[in-house]
Amino acid sequence: MMIDSVSVAAAERKISKDGFFGKTLFPLTKEAAQKLKMPYINPKKKISKSTSGSMENSPSEVWMAATHPLKKKKDNEADLKESRMTVEDRLAFMTAKKAELQSIFENGVWQLELEPEKASESRILKARYFLKWADDGKGGTKAKARLVLQGYSDPDLLSGSLEPSSPTLSRTSRQVLLSIGVLNQWVFLIVFVCRCGYSLLQGDNQSRELWCKLPRDACTLLNIKPNSLMRLLKPIYGQADAPRAWYQVARRRLEEVGFTQHKLDGCLFRLHDAEGCLCCLVGLHVDDLLISGNPQSECYNTAKKLLREKFNFKH
Known about the structure:
alpha+beta; 2 domains; 5-stranded mixed beta sheet; 5-stranded antiparallel beta sheet; 8 helices; about 30% helix; globular; disordered N terminus
């Protein structure tokens, strides 16, 4: 027996406070869910799976069946432990670790310290791999390894001489950008900076002296001595000032294209054509760009090409 929309809404409020399940749900009786071999949800009980055999359905109970089995995503578990992995998964993460090291070298983030005895002990920060299953963009998952510096022990951060804050696009500015784009019937683009997601590694060279003490597995992959030191030439993940360094780079690149920073929001940028008419807006949120522009404007189309040259767009 199907239930009406009012009952569905009431059931959703009981199951979830915000009424969002993350998937489409159809109201079905327990018996119908069993016939379709679909998992079903009882607002008063836990999620259960359909089983064989007849079941009695109470008219007062509201049941729902999901469009697909409710499975725990593999990437829900962050910072995985290799000791619990299969051999295949370990090999996948070894490849991911190599890719991470290659990207760091390609971006000129560090160089091997040939005289480690000259490094100040207080300015040597440990690093470790952070492992997780990430979306591969094709509906599956892929192994992802991120080498993260233990920036909480940064001596400049502890002394209070380091500025770790970095602005992000405010909700108000985002709504203004979306409203102007819709009212003018502009096109919208969502840009993920960097082909491999290494935007923070594109910061400017830093003047501070910092060394990274590599984990044992990274030393093994690089075929260097255990606990070798790398002198950091640019900010790296985990470093407290890395997001701010990237913001400064992104702002400079946008201004080089011709954008001007809004006075009320440091992450909202405007582009005007030769006649002074607004033709494009860009919102900057860490390494993501929300762009809205007039497709009929030659100024906007030129700027879009320049942005592709300035930033390494993932897609």
